Amino acid sequence: MAGHSHWAGIKHKKAVIDAKRGKVWSKLSRAIIVAAKMGGGDPDTNLKLRYAINDAKSVSMPKDNIERAIAKGSGEAGGDNYEEIVYEGTGSAGVFVMVEILTDNRNRTAPEVRKVFEKAGGKLGTTGSAAWMFERKGVITIPADQTDEESLMELALEAGGDDVARDGDTFRVTCPVDAFNDLNAAFEAAEGIEPESQSLAYVPNDTVTLSGDEARKAIQLMEALDDHDDVQQAAANFEIDEATLAEMEG
After folding, report:
1. Which of 63, 44, 55 is nearest to 141 (CA)?
2. Which residue stretches of the chain are H helix?
3. Cβ(124)–Cβ(114) under 8 Å?
4. Angstrom distance (rounded) from CA 46 to CA 83
5. Going along 120-212, which residue ranges are E strands?
6. pLDDT, tens digit, for every residue of 158-179?
7. Beta pairing partners, 85
8. Cα–Cα nearest to 151, from 120, 101, 191, 122
9. Superfamily in which the 4-73 domain is placed by CATH
10. Residues ≥6 apart with Cβ < 8 Å to 34
């Protein structure tokens, strides 16, 4: 939407800085471990693993780190037993939030995530309290310098995609979960297109626009969740007007 920016786009613009790279690599290692544990260590037959590896490569995670994570998940090198959990909550401005967790100790993680919400003026909710606002979809980001929106839209729709949106210097393509594999295959076969990230995520059905202090509190909550070691992804249904965003970035 012109004049506004989604949280997903704001997060993308921040990029991965060197000071945080170790934390990002740690999270991606967990995702690779869980994917390999669930579907085996061969990315050619385990699509979830392939996409986790692609995400790791997109932030320059070393090949040795990736291989060690695959080995752990495949049972070749021992490793922790991670559990996938989804938490739901609300922010201070009433925005809805979905938080995807990978943890080896849910008794530690739950109170920590609750504290993150409360510190930012939000509240951790019960199952179903926020999920109704979101739809589980495939989300693929593609650098805008690789193609144009019309060509990308045509390719995406033919392969089962349902939307293409420009967000800064990337295109964000969404699709139903059951079309995710076909859409990725179409992009892999397309000349000159190399996705930046491929994931299943919670996409809001509707958004609210925030400004001023409400916007700053919402960003504070999402950044705090993103910084938590056990949080893999966090999604929210807010946008921020460009004037407030420019002020925050200035």
Report:
1. 55
2. 7-14, 18-39, 47-58, 63-73, 106-119, 149-158, 180-189, 212-227, 242-249
3. yes
4. 19
5. 123-124, 134-143, 163-167, 170-176, 197-204, 208-210
6. 999 999 998 878 899 999 999 9
7. 101
8. 191
9. Integrase, N-terminal zinc-binding domain (1.10.10.200)
10. 73, 82, 84, 102
Res 3: pLDDT: 42
pLDDT band at 23 (very low <50, low <70, confident <90, very high): confident
Compute the distance between CA of residue 99 and CA of residue 199 in angstroms, rounded to an integer: 14
Q: Using one digit for the tens of pLDDT, what is the confidence trace for 31-54?
A: 999 999 989 999 989 988 988 898
User: Do 143 and 169 touch, CB atoms closer than 8 A?
Assistant: yes
Domain ranges of the chain: 4-73
